[in-house]
Amino acid sequence: LKDQFDNLDKHTQWGIDFLEKYAKFVKERIEIEQNYAKQLRNLVKKYCPKRSPKDEEPRFTSCIAFFNILNELNDYAGQREVVAEEMGHRVYGELMRYSHDLKTERKMHLQEGRKAQQYLDMCWKQMDNSKKKFERECREAEKAQQSYERLDNDTNATKADVEKAKQQLNLRTHMADENKNEYAAQLQNFNGEQHKHYYIVIPQIYKQLQEMDERRTIKLSECYKGFADSERKVIPIISKCLEGMILAAKSVDEHRDSQLVIDCFKSGFEPPGDFPFEDYSQNIYRTISDGTISTPKQEGMRIDSKTTVGKAKGKLWLFGKKPKGPALEDFSHLPPEQRRKKLQQRIDELNRELQKETDQKDALIKMKDVYEKNPQMGDPGSLQPKLTETMSNMDRLRMEIHKNEAWLSEVEGKVAARSDRRHSSDINHLVTQGRESPEGSYTDDANQEVRSPPQQHAHPTEFDDEFEDDDPLPAIGHCKAIYPFDGHNEGTLAMKEGEILYIIEEDKGDGWTRARRHNGEEGYVPTSYIDVTLEKNSKGA
Question: Which residue stretches does the UniProt record annotate as biased composition, category Acidic residues (predicted)?
Answer without folding.
Answer: 463-472
